[in-house]
Amino acid sequence: MIFRFTLVTGILAAATRTVAFAPVSNHALVSSTTSLYMGPPIDPSAPATDTYGEGSRKYRRTVYTHDQWVKHRSSDRFLNNLTTLIYSGIYKNVGKEVLATTSVAVFVWAWNLLACGYEDFSGVMHDPLISSKLATAVGLPMAIFTTLSPSLGLLLVFRTNTSYNRWDEARKFWGLNINHTRDLNRMATAWYGNDSSPGSLSAPKQTAKVIDPAEREHLLGQVSLFTWAFVRSMKRHLSPPGEDEEDFVAELKSRLTPEQADAIISAAHRPNRALYDLSVAIEKLPMHFMRKNEINKNLSIFEDTLGGSERLLSSPVPLFYSRHTARFISIWLLFLPFALYSQFGDSWNHIMMIPASALISVFLFGIEELATQLEEPFTILPMQGFCDKIGANCDEIVGWAGQDLYKIPEEVVEQMELELPELELPEKKMTSNLSLLGGEVEDEVMDESKKRKRKLLKKLLRIGEGI
Q: Are 148 and 360 a contacting pair, CB within 8 Å?
């Protein structure tokens, strides 16, 4: 009996902790002074559809900074969460279920009052108001509920853990998007114009002449834009059409050319189209194909995060499990007042069993509601914030092009131009030059021009290595 009571107490304690440490909102519509306010707006002018249910999900897209963490750890958090209890969207969502349970409790209390007699305010007992052999007290033994408590606890634990893992997996997918979009643009910017030949990295003075700054800005800008277009298309792909379609179209048309924007908007699968455009933009960059292959590895990761997100969106927790859990907890709570009536015999006419039934219903139905809200994670993730952050980071990274500190002294550049004009010959000549750097010379006798060439190339390489 002690073990079963502990199980029930543990469930209630878990529900209390869920309320106390539930995530809070930092949505743009909430003022900065209340950035940690949990749940939908308390402004009376806010639409009723935004106070709970689907309309409230956009207020749960939380991104924390250091200031928010300080307030989150505040010793006043318990009081703050209790004072906002009546505004909780979770509790409003389970209002009908709690009302049903409370109604059963009121019925049990009133029926037993009429069938078994009652005590007035002065403490005098009165006879039953219904004098019939069929009018007997209703109730159930508490042992039924203590026996079922471990099973209910296991169902709720599995339900909440599974839903949280889905949310956590979705958040990690977007974390990979953020990391690898930065990686992609960093490599594209640093390797631009580098084909690992004497005309580029081995001879940066040549690269500086060949690279057109305007062309570089355009090509890298396209990589940055289509990187943003992919994550923005992915966000739209995972969001409800009515919430995001107009903003998505407007944002694409404001940043891309009409042809580029229309190609993505009209595509049957928009993220795939944006990813294709990003592949084309990478292919246009002047660099060695091996380095393009390294950059393209990030695109494979994008495909994985997109596919994983689609899996989460299209495949819920098996419905038979969710339905069984909902039926179990509903029947358990609807019949609980029949067992609680005798447990509150010390209160006036057992009346405290009514608020007790309501409170237990709020907590247990609330746990199941939390699991249901977490099960589909994308409409409570701040995906728009992620997209804006990715776009700003990529634009900044490609803006660093041409800011490297690898410079060759002017006298070396002039000497190279005078004595080694053949360095600008086709690829075969460049390959021959590289063989000279390694000292692999087949001819035993080397003419004077080749000796000078080898000497100057080695000098240039030592300068590059020392910077």
A: no
Other beta carbons within 10 angstroms of residue 50's beta carbon come to: 18
Global pTM reads 0.73
**Do the bridges between strand 125-126 and strand 118-119 make them parallel or antiparallel, or are there none, so unpaired?**
antiparallel
Q: Which residues of the chain register pLDDT less than 70? A: 1-61, 194-210, 404-467
Contact (Cβ atoms closer than 8 angstroms) between residue 404 and residue 418: no
164 CB burial (10 A radius; 0-12, 13-18, 19+) = middle
Residues 6+ apart with CB under 8 A from 364: 11, 15, 152, 156, 329, 332, 333
Contacts of residue 103, Cβ cutoff 8 Å, sequence gap at least 6: none
Residue carrying the six token digits 């015999």:
345
Structural contact between residues 23 and 164, judged by C-beta atoms closer than 8 angstroms: no
Q: CA torsion sign, 437 to 443 to 446 to 447?
A: negative
> Which residues, at least 6 apart from 337, have a Cβ–Cβ distance to it below 8 Å?
101, 104, 105, 107, 108, 109, 353, 354, 357
Kindly state the tokens that stand for 182: 């930065």
Q: Of 256, 204, 202, whose CA–CA distance to 233 is shortest?
A: 256
Reference 84, options 20, 13, 149, 15; nearest CA is 20
CB neighbour list of residue 236: distance below 8 Å, 6 or more residues apart: 244, 245, 248, 270
In tens, the pLDDT along 272-325 reads 999 999 999 999 999 999 999 999 999 999 999 999 999 999 999 999 999 999
Handedness of CA 341, 344, 348, 351 (dihedral sign): negative
